Structures
1.
Amino acid sequence: EPEVTQTPSHQVTQMGQEVILRCVPISNHLYFYWYRQILGQKVEFLVSFYNNEISEKSEIFDDQFSVERPDGSNFTLKIRSTKLEDSAMYFCASSAGAARNEKLFFGSGTQLSVL
Amino acid sequence: AQKVTQAQTEISVVEKEDVTLDCVYETRDTTYYLFWYKQPPSGELVFLIRRNSFDEQNEISGRYSWNFQKSTSSFNFTITASQVVDSAVYFCALSRAGNMLTFGGGTRLMVKP
């Protein structure tokens, strides 16, 4: 079965540094998402992306965050100046459509640790 | 506002026991979708099932079954004859427009041999 791949699996960074988390969605999918899961807490929606634009974003997704599809295969999440509270598992997901019943395919996540 | 509650944070069973994971949701939408995802130790979120708000038929897939009751806003998940490989964290989720999923806190299931 096709899968969403995320790199790196673990990322350690110093507070204030910029990080870029990378994702390769399933090739024929058009909708892309980032979710995050702080240790011991719920999985939370960050942002959805379609046609090179942000479709929806949560209040978590502030000016420190940005997303990009730099080429035909990658989808990235950038955090400009990391804070301790950005430490979390970040999940990328993709779907073929945007209907509410659409099945999201998730990657294995990138564990971000901000020191 | 939407909310999903999984009251059981952790469940431990012995292999071959049946186990039910509870999920209660809140929404003002008349049309919505409910999902269950599994997160094995490897970390990824694996889709298990989706159910729309107009379809209250229970569903069975092998050892898995789901009981959707709109009257009680519940979407419970039962594993029959549990196996060690079922050990994982299970998330119930509710979809909103634009495919934003609201997740519950998850239930960690440990199946012991």
2.
Amino acid sequence: QKEVEQDPGPLSVPEGAIVSLNCTYSNSAFQYFMWYRQYSRKGPELLMYTYSSGNKEDGRFTAQVDKSSKYISLFIRDSQPSDSATYLCAMSSHSGGGADGLTFGKGTHLIIQP
Amino acid sequence: DSGVTQTPKHLITATGQRVTLRCSPRSGDLSVYWYQQSLDQGLQFLIQYYNGEERAKGNILERFSAQQFPDLHSELNLSSLELGDSALYFCASSVVGVSTDTQYFGPGTRLTVL
């Protein structure tokens, strides 16, 4: 079992729809959860950053973490064609003083149809 | 533009060869992370340097090595290249050097091994 599982898609939805993207993970030590957006042939760009369980909202984006279920979600409201990209979840177990890289899901390819 | 630069953008080489990828972090960032992104494995952490010192190792092969120089730029050396090393290689930088820092990714170097 991989540490982080993410449906690769593609997920195709009409413009204006609410999009739900999800990841599950197996390592209960993960405490820090991130969502990155990656356009084709570009580097990943950080969208959302959440510590432990709970919700975080930023504009049209909402990130949810349920540590009891080892499940994280990213919701995109009023989706736009410019949101078409690959969305990567990422996680880490270390807080200040620790050092390691992020563990990524493989990414979900999202297509917003005009 | 994240402020992280990587050169070259594309690299085509043959099996058995050695290549060097270069990364310049954002101004003020002391930490550099290297990641490999392939279709089958996704984005995987290779190695981290902080202020010139190796800080963490991920799934980095023995044929690969890296260093960070006094001016904080970093190089990733890949030797005895195999077809399976063909991938996108990303560099990311952060201020302090823990994975919970916001990591800013460069545009990547696309390596093709023929």
